[in-house]
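2024-03-11 09:14:02 INFO worker-7 job=invfold-0412 stage=load source=structure_tokens
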């Protein structure tokens, strides 16, 4: 084999390695520099953005931020859309329209579209690609394209401590209570009581908590054991490894 051919392949491999590292370092720098925080809001001027809150880079579509209030220590993942109003540049008055309370998490690719009020309670976690909207298309006139008909709006209220699974849709007028679990792909409308689990399209209550009877239907898995105080993450990983070694075929 000719020496120059070997040298060329070695040079190409080295160059690819250098280029790959440079690209990853550059992307890491862009993600850090492009993130939006209270100290570094970039071009976005939210009505409020609390300390510890971070919008990951790249952001999705964001407009009407003057009427958006973000609480403390919220996590907004990449490509999340936050919009207020039908389009940018509208005057929507003085009151906030879209409010995320402290500790809210919006997963990658989620959308929150607020023409009427949308309120998300503290410590509510949303998986990826969740869609929350206070606006829906109307189709009253059978002779007009649906997209040309004026939409209907109704406020959305999501209580504190909820978990909203991947791909769920929260429709106008929905009111979720405290600690509600929304299954992945569910389409939620109307009232959902506290401590309920809903699933399906349209979503229905499939499990609820009663003070005297507990969860009905009963949970099928035991409650997780709390992590003892003083246990480090390294010790947890080592313990999990030992458990897997004891499993046949593990």
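2024-03-11 09:14:09 INFO worker-7 stage=emit residues=250
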């Amino acid at each position: 084999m000719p020496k120059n051919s070997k040298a060329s392949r070695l040079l190409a491999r080295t160059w690819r390695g250098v280029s790959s590292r440079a690209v990853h370092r550059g992307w890491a720098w862009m993600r850090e520099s492009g993130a939006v925080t209270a100290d570094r809001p970039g071009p976005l001027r939210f009505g409020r953005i609390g300390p510890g809150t971070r919008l990951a880079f790249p952001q999705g579509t964001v407009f009407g931020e003057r009427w958006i209030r973000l609480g403390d220590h919220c996590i907004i993942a990449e490509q999340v859309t936050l919009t207020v109003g039908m389009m940018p540049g509208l005057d929507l008055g003085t009151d906030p329209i879209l409010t995320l309370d402290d500790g809210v998490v919006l997963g990658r690719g989620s959308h929150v579209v607020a023409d009427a009020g949308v309120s998300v309670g503290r410590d509510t976690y949303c998986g990826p690609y969740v869609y929350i909207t206070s606006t829906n298309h109307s189709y009253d006139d059978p002779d007009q394209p649906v997209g040309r008909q004026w939409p209907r709006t109704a406020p959305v209220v999501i209580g504190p401590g909820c978990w909203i699974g991947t791909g769920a849709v929260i429709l106008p007028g929905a009111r979720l209570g405290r600690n509600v679990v929304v299954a992945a792909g569910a389409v939620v409308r109307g009232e959902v009581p506290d401590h309920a689990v809903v699933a399906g399209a349209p979503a229905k209550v499939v499990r609820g908590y009663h003070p005297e009877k507990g969860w009905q239907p009963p949970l099928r898995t035991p409650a997780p054991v709390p992590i003892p105080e003083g246990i480090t993450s390294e010790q947890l990983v080592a313990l999990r490894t030992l458990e897997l070694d004891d499993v046949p075929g593990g």
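2024-03-11 09:14:09 INFO worker-7 stage=report msg="DSSP finds two helices and 25 strands in the chain."
2024-03-11 09:14:10 INFO worker-7 job finished
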